[in-house]
Design brief:
Elements lengths: L3 E6 L10 H9 L3 E3 L5 H8 L4 E3 L1 H6 L3 H18 L4 E5 L8 H12 L3 E5 L4 H10 L6 E5 L15 E5 L4 H12 L7 E6 L8 E6 L13 E5 L5 H4 L3 H12 L5 H5 L6 H17 L2 H25 L4 H14 L2 H4 L7 H18 L19 H13 L8 H17 L5 H18 L4 H25 L9 H19 L1
Parallel strand pairs: 1-4, 1-5, 2-3, 2-4, 6-7
Antiparallel strand pairs: 7-10, 8-9, 8-10
Helix pairs in contact: 4-5, 9-12, 11-12, 16-18, 17-18, 19-20
Amino acid sequence: MSPSITVVGLGSGDENQLTLGVWKKLQAADPLYVRTDKHPVVDFLRTNGVTVQSFDGLYEAHRSFAEVYDSIVDELLRMARTSQQAVVYAVPGHPMVAESTTRLLRERCASEEVELTVAGGESFLDQAFSRFGFDPIEGFALFDATALPAGGAGYEPRMHALIAQVYDSHTASDVKLFLMNALPDEHEVVVGHELGVAGRERIVRVPLYELDRLDGYGNLSLVWVPRTEEESVRNRTFERLREIVDILRSPEGCPWDREQTHASIRKNLIEETYEVLETIDDDDPAAMCEELGDLLLQIMLHSQMEAETGAFDVYDVIAGLNDKLIRRHPHVFGELGADDADEALRNWNEMKAEEKRSKGIDVEQLSVLAGVPRDLPGLMKAYKLQKKAAQVGFDWERTEEVYAKIEEELAELKEASDEERSGELGDLLFAVVNLARFLRIDPEEAIAATNRKFLERFGYIERQLRLKGQTFDQTGLPEMEKMWQEAKKLSKNARS
C-alpha cells in the first residue's frame, strides 16, 4: 500500500457541523491524529470511542507556530511512510481555510510521493457569515492575526474584514494596531468566540481601543469589522483620494479642474514643493502634513490627466516606483551587501547606469554633466554641475584658489559695461557656489537661512514703527539701521 494522508475538517464548532462523510472517516481512523485537542468536537469523538492523539505537545516544544507546523508535517509524513494504513489527520474548521499544516502537506507530499486527500468540513467562515449576519457577496477580506501586513495595508473599509486566529490578547493588540491605521479609536468592532458552539458562543461589540482588553480569546476567536461608508473612515484611504480627483476632472466635476493641463499647473508643483520645504525648516509637523497633501494632489492631478488619455494612471506610477525601489536596493531586496551609506549609494548609481544600458543608452557616451534637471533653481543647479565636474578632476585644489576666483569675478563685475554685467554677475554667483561646495555648505540652504533672517529682522523694524505710530515715509535709513542692529542683537542673545 502506498503511503497516504487524509486531512479532514472538524468544523469550527460542535459535532452538529460534521458532515456524514467526515464522520465516517473519523470513526474509521485508528488512531485519529488531531492538530490540537482544544476543539469542542474532540471530546465528542472520545466519548464515541474514537482514539485521538494530538500534537499539542509540540506547541510547548517550539518557540514559533511555524516550527510547530513544520514538526507536525514531519511527523505525519514519517508515520505515512511506516504505517500500513492511511494516516487520518483532523484540523479545526475546513482543511483549506487558514490551515498552515494543510498548505505544508500539499507542498511536501507531492515531492515525497505521499498521496494526499483533503475532505471538507465547515469552516469558521460559514459560522462567521451566519452568526455575524452578513453576505460575503458584499465583499470581504480575510486576514491572519499572526501575520498582518504593515501599516494597515490591504484593509478596505467598504469591505467586511474578518481577522482570524486571534489566539490571545497579544494578537488582539496586533489587530488593534493594524486597524488603527485606518479607523478611529472609537470605531466599533465585533469579537466572536466559539461561533456555532451551543452554550459557549459569545459575540461582543467593543470600541476598537478596547479590543485587547477583553478576556476569553482562544483558538476559536476572530474579529469582524463591518463594512462602512463613513466619510471620516473612507477619507483615510488612497482609493478615496483617487476617486475624488477623478470626480473633479469629470464632466460633472469642477470647471476649473477640468480646464487644467500639465502646463497650466506646472508652477503649482514647484510652489507646493517649496511650501513643504518651508514646513521642514519650521519644524512644523501639522503644517507639513497639510502641505504634503497639497503636493500629493499635484501628482494625482497629473496622473489623472494621463489616465484620461490612456497613457498611464496613478497605479502605473506606483508600480514603476515600487519596481525602481526594489531594483535599486539590491542590498535590501537582493543578494548584494552594503555596509554603509556610501556603499548603498554606489549600488544605487550602478543600478541607474544598468537601467540606462537596458534602454539602449550608451552610458559611456553620456556627458559627465548628464542627469542634472534642466529647470532646477540656479544655485542648486550650479552646485550639482560643479559636483559632477569635480568627480572627474575638473576642480580647484585649495579653498584659497576659490577665494581668489571670487575676487577676480568681483573685479570684473566692477569694470563691466551695462551689457556685460548680467553675465559677470552670473560668473560671480557661480564662483560663490563653488566656495559653498568647498566649505561643505548647501548654497540653497544657506540663502534660505539668510532670507529667513532678513524676514525676521525686517519684521522687527515694522513692529517697532507700528509701536511708535510711524510709517516708513516718516522714518529714514539711519533710524531703520539702528532698529536692524537691535534686531540682530536680539537674535544673537536668543541663540546664546
